[in-house]
Specification:
Layout lengths: L1 H18 L3 E12 L2 E2 L5 E4 L2 E19 L2 E5 L4 E5 L7 E7 L6 E6 L3 H5 L14 E2 L4 E10 L9 E7 L9 E6 L5 E7 H5 L9 E2 L4 H10 L3 E3 L1
Parallel strand pairs: 1-13, 11-14
Antiparallel strand pairs: 1-2, 1-7, 3-4, 4-5, 4-6, 4-8, 4-10, 8-12, 9-10, 10-11, 13-15
Length: about 230
């Protein structure tokens, strides 16, 4: 009986130790740019031989992990964040990280993984009312980029790129790795010009379904992020 009590006490002590583990708040601050200028709706930016306006930029960041020397040392539970250029508050969020965790890299998914997609529409950042859900195929849009340019021959010079898809061979979620160091805030830049300048909108003005084009553009989108 004493041995059983001792085992129970040890297990409870271990659970309490984990529960009471000290944590520190680590902020993620995303700054959206077009080249060297801050990204603003309706503002004109240089694009090839003309200009462009960005009206919508939204993207999901999920499955955030911290790693040290190539080994994941912490992951954020229920990790889904919707970044929206129209909502500056969406560009900052806080993670509760154990105080003793050392890390040299932050990793996240650009988009929503297949598990969340097959679970159907959910709440919070994943609520379909956020405008990032394809009801016709029961799947999330990982990234939206919309705007106008006189270079675009489409109706009202509008272009629309909605990147998504979670089923092979058109799974478009991408993994982003960035070197960083422990601190109170990790400042991350996202340069939308890198993404848009990879597209000739005089030839291609729209991607609205999963496919090779969505996967290719998603790969480029993963490269817009960097730690400042």
């Amino acid at each position: 009986m004493k041995k059983v009590c001792s085992i129970i006490f040890t297990l409870l002590a271990s659970c309490f130790s984990l529960w009471a583990q000290d944590t520190t708040d680590v902020g993620i601050q995303l700054q959206l740019w077009y080249g060297k200028a801050s990204l603003q709706s309706g503002k004109e930016y240089p694009y090839r031989d003309t200009t462009v306006q960005i009206n919508v930029f939204r993207t999901y960041i999920s499955a955030i992990r911290l790693s040290n020397k190539g080994k994941v040392v912490w992951h954020e539970p229920d990790s889904y964040h919707l970044i929206d250029m129209a909502d500056s508050s969406s560009c900052y969020f806080t993670m509760h990280v154990p105080s003793d965790v050392m890390y040299d890299t932050i990793i996240w998914n650009l988009g929503i993984d297949s598990m969340a997609n097959v679970s159907g529409a959910m709440g919070g950042a994943l609520d379909p009312t956020r405008g990032m859900y394809w009801s016709w195929q029961s799947g999330y849009i990982n990234l939206k980029l919309e705007g106008t340019s006189t270079m675009c021959p489409a109706r009202q010079h509008e272009f629309q790129f909605h990147l998504g898809g979670y089923m092979p061979p058109f799974a478009s979620v991408q993994e982003v790795h960035m070197s960083t160091r422990p601190g109170k805030v990790i400042n991350v830049s996202a340069d939308i010009a890198i993404l848009l300048n990879s597209i000739d909108i005089s030839v291609q003005q729209s991607i609205m379904i999963p496919g090779d084009d969505a996967v290719a553009l998603s790969c480029i989108a993963a490269g817009i992020f960097s730690v400042r």
